[in-house]
Amino acid sequence: MNRNGNTYTVLYAAIMVTLVAAILASVSMALKPQQVRNKEIEKKQSILASVNIASTAENADEIYSEKIVSQYVINTKGDKVEGDAFNIDLKKEHAKSNAEMHLPVFECKTDEGLKYVLPVRGTGLWGPIWGYISLNDDMNTIYGANFDHEGETPGLGAEISTVPFEKQFIGKKLFDDKGTLYSIIVAKVGQDAPAEHKVDGISGGTITSKGLEQMLLDDFTRYEEFLKKKKS
Amino acid sequence: MSEPLFSKKNLKLLSDPLNSSNPITVQVLGICSALAVTAQLKPAVVMSISVMAVLAFANVIISLLRNTVPNRIRIIVQLVVIASLVILVDQVLKAYVYDVSKQLSVFVGLIITNCIIMGRLEAFALGNKPWQSFLDGIGNGAGYAVILIIVGFFRELLGSGSIFGFKLIPESWYITNGGFYANNGMMILPPMALITVGIIIWVQRSRNRKLIED
């Protein structure tokens, strides 16, 4: 058969793409359950990491069910509502209006008392960034933080998910002396902010740092009523 | 097929890309990823291994198909092979070695755009047997790796004062702690990667005069 003829070329292309599509689709379907499971374990590990508890993929389930004593859903007025806290998709919730938004809260029992874990989600430079912040029961002081990202530049923006960066958040305050929400400033070199509200940003990762700062402000604002109600 | 597997000619396929036909410094391919992922050594190493694997297997597959591929759509065929391989690798990593896939993150996708891979498929695999193509893939992958690791080494050392994340510069040396030293922030930005690659090319050409063009 003429290998440069139209028929051969079209047939070759058609067979090739069908084959490739079939292979990729079946591989994707076969591996899906395992991938979903990995995501679930990762989420549990991240929540535990935000209360400074280390876990491995093997024991995450066990530690999670032991330490997380309660998980529930609230609205932006700070009242509890019906819902499955673990499987809430923050991306979808953030797209809703404030009145309809549902937010998860996880309560974690630690050696230093009960901690409240709040998930946050925002935008970095290349894609979404997200994380979990745990608060002491004064609903003001950060007990621990864990961040992750989809595709920030390694060595630059991706540094937000490293331990030295996350450790800076420990002990920082959300509210100022008067009780107004101040959130956390992710500062550039030389930028001035009260020490209890400030962490150092990442050199070469300014847009990711600012995105993280915005994410914290947005999400703490959503949780503000809940935090105030819990405190009083 | 009487030729031994590791004949002199075949070994040259492995060693040439490390020096006189290096894909980055001589053919100037794959520069984009070399600049993007070398701010630290670890991602540079991971990226090198991934590219080597994909390059070797894509070379073998194209070499096996080389007598059937219609000339007019050969670039598309190459692209489909590379893209499918990369997606397969990504899916398998996500399912079985989730930690590694997290580290690789964007790099896996970036492999598709790496010009070295298509360059080798077009220039070598289309005209050679599978075994030679495999060696060529490994050799060029290694040539790519060498440059990435050299660049990553200097950028992490001078830019962050560490190697593989371990601090090498004592804390007391830093100006903030009363010392005399500061990390060079320029090193972690892409422009310094380009300059570092330029210096490597300069050093290589001054040692190997055959590479100097008129």
Mean pLDDT of chain A: 90
Which word captures the global form of chain B? globular
Biggest sheet architecture of chain B:
2 strands, antiparallel
Q: Radius of gyration of chain B from the CA trace?
A: 19 Å
Q: Please, how many domains of chain A? A: 1
| Approximate helicity band of chain A | 25-40%
Strand content of chain A: 15-25%
Q: How many H/I helical runs of chain B? A: 9
Q: Total number of helical segments of chain A?
A: 5
Report on the structure:
The complex is a heterodimer of chains A (232) and B (214). Chain A contains five helices and eight strands. By secondary structure, chain A is an alpha+beta fold. In chain A, the strands form two sheets. Chain A has a six-stranded antiparallel β-sheet with strand order 2-1-3-4-5-6, sandwiched between helices. Chain A has a two-stranded parallel sheet with strand order 7-8. The mean pLDDT of chain A is 90. Chain B is mostly helical. Chain B has nine helices and two strands; from the N terminus they run H-H-H-H-H-H-H-H-E-E-H. Chain B has a two-stranded antiparallel sheet. In chain B, strand 1 and strand 2 form a beta hairpin. The termini of chain B are far apart. At the A-B interface, helix 1 of A face helix 4 of B.
Put the structure in a nutshell:
The complex is a heterodimer of chains A (232) and B (214). By secondary structure, chain A is of the alpha+beta class.
Main traits of this protein?
heterodimer; A: 232 residues; two-stranded parallel sheet; B: 214 residues; two-stranded antiparallel sheet; 63% helix
